[in-house]
Amino acid sequence: MDSYNIVGVLGRGAFGVVELVRDFNLKKLAVMKTIHIKSMSTKNVKEAIKEIQILQMLNHPNIIRYYNSFQNKQSFHIIMEYAIHGTLENFVNKCSQTSNYIAQNCVLNIFSQLTMAVDYIHKMKIIHSDINPMNILLTGSQGTIVKLGDFGSSRILTNDKIIGENWCTPCYMSPEQCCGKPLRLKTDIWQIGCVLYYLITSKHPFYAESLADTISSIVEGVLSFSEKITFYDNDVIMLLHELLNRDPTVRPNASAILSNPFILPYVLNSNCHWPKSGRKVLNKNY
């Protein structure tokens, strides 16, 4: 711990804390995720070890970078890249306070970078299983570089699908997760579809007052679209419906999404500067 100076707390969870630290070896700010293993079951300790093992495997410009890890009798500590511009959720909240919608160029730039990260892990047979706006981070000088983080719920495929617990953020659960069915790569595709919906509408998909009602909405496919969709091309809305198909076998894979003619330009120029919002007057008659 002598190599790190704690600057502040970024978040807390059931089994630990995430802190902003100054890394004296790297000579820059980093994130330290501390997992308190003393109060954890053997199963949860194994899950924490698995997260570290997966992070060590990953090296992609759109995934939060792993730097180091160490442990003592009380805790595991994981040192990772710090995304200076915060979460996608914070970004969308700020945009919704200042404008009516997020410009399509911005939406597709974020979405394409997220999909590139998913395509990368899927080629390594890794399922993230908890893709949501809190686990998507923004960095770079202008906040235009997208990073997928938090692999605490991720799994490595040993077959075409994984049987076992597959809990994630409720509004972003896939129908198969809601029904306790095995995880598969297409589970992540549903979740990036939910993120696309969130970028378009500034609202979490399938939100309901109770968990039971949320699950019911997901399983039944009850999803409302706001008047904001009028600001986006039909190709974008059609893609959204493809991603949120309740049948996972029908959803496109990440590689197919990236090769889509209207997504491909953003893939080829993923780090370009994009406008953050639009200010058109909403059509009240829609």
TrEMBL record:
It catalyses: L-seryl-[protein] + ATP = O-phospho-L-seryl-[protein] + ADP + H(+); L-threonyl-[protein] + ATP = O-phospho-L-threonyl-[protein] + ADP + H(+). ATP binds at K33. InterPro entries: Kinase-like_dom_sf, NEK_Ser/Thr_kinase_NIMA, Prot_kinase_dom, Protein_kinase_ATP_BS. The keyword NAD does not apply. One of its GO terms (molecular function) is protein serine/threonine kinase activity. Transmembrane segments: none annotated. It is an enzyme of class 2 (transferase). It comes from the Eukaryota. Belongs to the protein kinase superfamily. NEK Ser/Thr protein kinase family. NIMA subfamily. This is non-specific serine/threonine protein kinase. The gene is Nek8.
